[in-house]
User: What shape does this take?
Amino acid sequence: MSETRTPLRPTERGAARQTVTISFAGFNRPWAAWIGDRLERRGVRVSYVRWDSPAEETLVDLLRGLALAEGRILVLVSERYFQLGPRTFEEWNAALREVVGPDPARFAAVSVTNTQVPAAIAVLGPVDLTNMGEDEAERRLLDRLDLPSEPLSGPADGNRRGPRFPAAMPEVWGAVPRRNTRFTGREPLLNDAYHLLQGSDHGAGVITLHGMPGVGKTQLAAEYIYRFGSEYDVVWWVNAESRVTYRRVLAELAPKLRLATGDEYGERLRAVRDSLRRGNPYSRWLLVLDGADEPDQIWDLVPTGPGHVIITSRNPEWGEHNSKLLEVNVYDRDESVAFIRRRAPRLNEQESDQLAEALEDLPLLLDQTAGWLNDSDLSVDDYIALLEDGVDPDVVKVSADFPLAFQTAWAILLNKLRETVPESVDLLRLCTFFAPGFIPVRMLREMSSDDLPEQLTRLFNDPLLWNKAINQLRQYSVVRLESHEIGSEETPSPGESVYLHRMVHQIVGKDMPEENRREFIDVVRRALAEADPGRPTDTRNWQAYAELVPHLKYADVLNSTDRRVQLLVLNCLRYMWWAGEYTSGWKLGRRTVDAWRELLGESHPRVWEATHHYANLLRSAGRFEETESIDRAAMARLREERGEDDLDYLRVANGLGADLWGLGRYRQAFDLYSWIHPAYRDLLGEQDSRTLSALNNLAFAHRLLGEYGEALAIDQKTLDQRRLVLTGRHLMTLFSEVSYSIDLRLLGRYAEAESIQANNLREYGYVGGKRTPDVLRAEHNLALCQLRSGDRASAGALLTQVLEGYERTLGETNLHTVAASVSHSCFNREHGDIDLARETSESVIARYEELLPEGHPFTIGARSNQALILRNVGEREHAHVLTEQALAGMAEAVGERHPYTLGCAINASALRNLVGETESAAELSRVTIARATETLGRTHPLTLSARVAYAADLRGLRARQQAEKAEQEALTDLEATLGKQHVHTVSARARNRPYWDFEPQAS
Assistant: This one.
């Protein structure tokens, strides 16, 4: 190669600023962007010209047009540069000698390829930039253009970050398909996508590539990454065909971003979304959501922030979800011809045009057909004749959504596969009983070979035959080999997984003899069942279950009578509950119950098991009225068939109690648990885990009724039994310890509660230290203990951590998360940001109204809290109306003597006093004292608050002697109960009117 150097010549405007025009194939845009950035940093003006080679223009004319560009012309030499057209090397050699030869000073070149290029390229004097680091590549580039190569003192534009060196990967890179070296055309679409994303506002960088199956949406998204990926620090590819898979793969980004999370997917997913939204640690990120054909399934999980999202979908409804649409159509004819000639070099331009017309320019079909035509002796004319003859409709039955040409072409290709490697057809048909997209064919090879059909036994056990079948499918672009094991650093072995396009999946599934269908579906069901890890409560198995779930539908597992397959379904339902996949889970649960009732009978044990998991998932999704109906119907049937002394009956009754809690019907729940616990005790004994769980639920039922003393006694008994049976650091023992501490706090025994809770959290740390929902529950209680004891700084910091932890672990609409939001809002109202408190409070009310039935105590209590915020910002009349509504509503919901109602009364009396209704305020305070004394005792903090408030009301009525007596008695009891320096005592002594914060008991 020539090492001739030609100095960079000044432009006509003088030597103040030099100009370089970079000519590049679109395929090599990352190199062009990096080179241009390196030159611009040194004051060179850069123009970019993407090289194209339309067949109707000669190479000589195209090169002469390029020579008219301003400044020095730098050509990026690559195989793609010379393949456009395509043109022969002889054409290139002649054109280069004619145009560049007479004036080589106008041109320079760098080479980014190691493949053969036209010999006459030597006239450009290219220097090689491959197989070296960034610094050496920059030195060679600058040396070729005779520019100084000394290091710059700093970036030309301050702290501007330029494109990454093309040979360097982004810092985070996951599951991106291999680059399609035969990618052709689509330049306008790629440019439109780039400009739409780059020009988008913060949080709005979302585009959807939509179009019919087979037009190349996935390939287009992959090519975008390889063209523009150097501008991102994070590039992550997500299979978005189902919500379960989407959540799993997106959650796997958490460790790559170095986020501190536990193993639970829900927590990881929320941490990832929060990190992307904030742009920390990376603001330049790109996510591709591939195959997202159902926007309603995942639109709420699409990340926002400073980065970009590309969605591929058949569904244009993404336009209704903050996404700009780019329609992907079939190839233009010149693109089709160029692609065919690259895929099948033996075909000339006329034959390629004939084939493109016959196949309607559909990229997937062009790829498959041209691939095997290139290896076949069949002429294009003969192939087209086969297409025109049609195909027996009894052989290929496909959806009308497919072009007729595809139906016929597929039949021809299938016959070709049968003639060459018939086992490849068997393997392909097996794949159709997995979900389209990534198919874990390794499960087939790993399964037991007992009782398999003979041809499959041979295929699975002979590695050479297996690889031959895989390679045959790959050669004709029927499948592609891909790794989608995000969490693994190891390179998968050949045949681990394949990618099968949805279009091919559907047509192969329909083109199958019934005998094969029955045999093959049983094989796939067995493979899935044998891949079941067996412990869905173990977070280490969740990735395996997340991979299994999408395939259940396509293997029609719900109609299998195989006990192992049915156990797989039950384990998947349990996994979906533990992992927080409530919506997808209850839908699968409902289908399971319906199918098994018909298959196994209404009263089969596995039907009751499925019903239990279905109800749990539905209840966790907040659909309490539906679960109540399900549980009551199940109880009625079980009572009729087995009687009430039955464990399945008791389990359903236990679920019904949780339904009643969720619906705010606390007395009914209490009555039910008052019966359930003795029933379990009589059947299983005092120390059985189910008996102790029922005892725990009975204590919670007391707590919801405001009977804190009774709850404390039962929780203490449960705690003692669990310490005896399970040891002190068992998770259920630690859970009971938190319940015991909550009871103490609600009784006003703040110091005891805080001491127990602080020690409990240390024990949780010894057990595992992860911030599970149970640990967050413990932290939440500790924060409230600290707040009641006056340690506001510690309480505020911990409340923020707890809220963030719940949002990450359970999501914003979970009742535990909303409860943490309530505490966070109340704290900010008094000790932080009143605007944030109001915003949070309004969000809490909105979520409760959506999740809970009308008149639920949680919603009413949240409105009482909101009234206190309105009071603090001066909206007294509005606050007064809201407190009166809350008082009336709470009395109706839980009764006049419930602590919730008594607390609402304390707030209502304060607002009455504030708006001038002094007599009414005093009367309400007097009644509240009497009821609180009866319910909680004379020295309970809530009763003491009512007594302090009553003294203030008496002062307002100018009954000074009575007021002083009431105040002094209250202060004496406060000092005796809480201490002279307790925050409540100090506040009362300063005559600050007390208020009451509603605290929802979520568990």
